[in-house]
Amino acid sequence: MPTAPAFEQITYAVADGVATLTLSRPEKLNAFTDQMAEEVKAALDTIDADDDVRAVVVTGAGRGFCAGSDLSAGADTFSAETDELAHRDMGGTVALRLFRCLKPLIAAVNGPAVGVGATLQLPMDVRLASTAAKFGFVFTRRGIVPESCSSWFLPRVVGIGQALEWCTTGRVFDAQEALRGGLVRSLHEPDDLLPAAYALAREIADNTAPVSVSLTRQLLWQMLDAPHPMDAHRIESQLLAIRGGSSDAAEGVTSFLDKRGPVYPMRVSTGMPDAFGAAQEPPFR
């Protein structure tokens, strides 16, 4: 089991196959910083390398999920330190790392989630929210534009019309509107949010093959912009040929026929096809 680095602005723990990654600057509503970005990416590296981690719950400490970028630098908060053409958005580097993660990611949005706090959820696979949560893609109200690859992710998650309304107005909206708009999967009373997120994580950890989950996550994301279903047919056919003869597939069938819970032998660290590891960007092309 890999040892997680020491963190200052997030916390990280693993229990019974489920990792919890918590944004942890509660006195600042977990406002996002460069250091927090690097710590999240380091935690994701640990997650991908740890075969004991089957699913990840991401949440915030205290009463907020993430209040957006730390604005303590004032008017210079969003000034790029490099030439515009060479600049890489901090949130975008985290979003791309989330996108490449080999484990399923569940956002448990416990409170305000605006700016980067809203966009960083988008590469995650399922989003659950507290009834106390609020959301906002507030960039036009700060004189900037959407970041964290959200111009790619948000229309794919909620549709172009809803994405345009939220991003052009920049308004903050409540959890009920997030549910109606398809941004979150379900709403929960504050004390019920994490139990619901962990229950979903347990569905994955207890019943599925780790390598199959990792490949499936990448397949679904990567095929969103495939120009033709033939692209999906080609890659699915290759993976079915690879996985169909594996010890995991044998266990999946025999456990079903024996009416018992499966014990899948293969691990993500050793069982992923060479072309489908997290180090590839993007994994399939």
UniProtKB/TrEMBL annotation:
InterPro entries in UniProt: ClpP/crotonase-like_dom_sf, ECH/Chromodomain_protein, Enoyl-CoA_hydra/iso, Enoyl-CoA_hydra_C
Gene3D superfamilies reported for this sequence: 2-enoyl-CoA Hydratase, Chain A, domain 1, Lyase 2-enoyl-coa Hydratase, Chain A, domain 2
One Pfam family of this chain: ECH_1
Homology family: Belongs to the enoyl-CoA hydratase/isomerase family.
Record's protein name: Unannotated protein
